[in-house]
């Protein structure tokens, strides 16, 4: 009995326990809902942080894809620009060749335009020579006579 009384004394008898006021830090006195609410907030914060991390990863992946597309477009633009420059150079060379050909054709046309005048001059000269020959019939007969060995006429 003494042992039982000692245990009651150590634990505190029910009458003794009711008389003692509970301390504010006593877990039996704190309700469970604030603890659950705080844990829910921590879980919600962790989920929000996880969502932000996943969203950031998706943004980074999309940024990488767009950067790759922009780089590809830049390469294509460079190639097109280079092709355009080559085409412009060829067009410039062709234009120069065409201008040279036009210049040569103009020179030939001018030459052809001056040739009829020269032909007319030659033609008039031939006519004058023929007229002069007709006036001198004896000169024509001289050409028909035979010459001796010394070149004198018979």
| Helicity level | over 70%
Class per helix and strand makeup: mainly alpha
- Biggest sheet record: none
Shape: rod-shaped
Write down the secondary-structure element order: HHHH
Distance between the termini: 197 Å
**Please, how many helices?**
4
Could you tell me the radius of gyration in angstroms? 63 Å
Produce the secondary structure layout.
Elements: H1 2-11, H2 14-19, H3 33-135, H4 137-144
Structure, explained:
The chain has 154 residues and is an all-alpha fold. The protein has a domain at 32-133. The protein contains four helices and no strands.
Give a brief description:
By secondary structure, the chain is mostly helical. The chain contains 4 helices and no strands. It has a domain at 32-133.
Give short descriptive properties of this protein.
Mast cell expressed membrane protein 1, mainly alpha, 154 residues, rod-shaped, membrane, 4 helices
């Amino acid at each position: 009995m003494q042992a039982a009384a000692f245990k009651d004394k150590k634990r505190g008898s029910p009458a003794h326990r009711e008389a003692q006021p509970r301390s504010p830090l006593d877990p039996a006195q704190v309700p469970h809902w604030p603890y659950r609410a705080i844990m829910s907030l921590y879980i919600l914060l962790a989920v929000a942080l996880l969502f932000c991390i996943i969203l950031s990863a998706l943004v980074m992946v999309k940024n990488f894809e767009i950067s790759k597309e922009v780089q590809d477009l830049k390469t294509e633009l460079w190639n097109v620009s280079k092709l355009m420059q080559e085409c412009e150079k060829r067009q410039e060379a062709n234009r120069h060749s065409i201008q040279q050909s036009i210049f040569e054709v103009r020179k030939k046309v001018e030459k052809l335009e001056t040739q009829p005048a020269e032909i007319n001059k030659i033609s008039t000269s031939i006519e004058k020579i023929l007229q002069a020959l007709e006036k001198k019939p004896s000169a024509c007969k001289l050409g028909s006579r035979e010459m001796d060995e010394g070149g004198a006429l018979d």
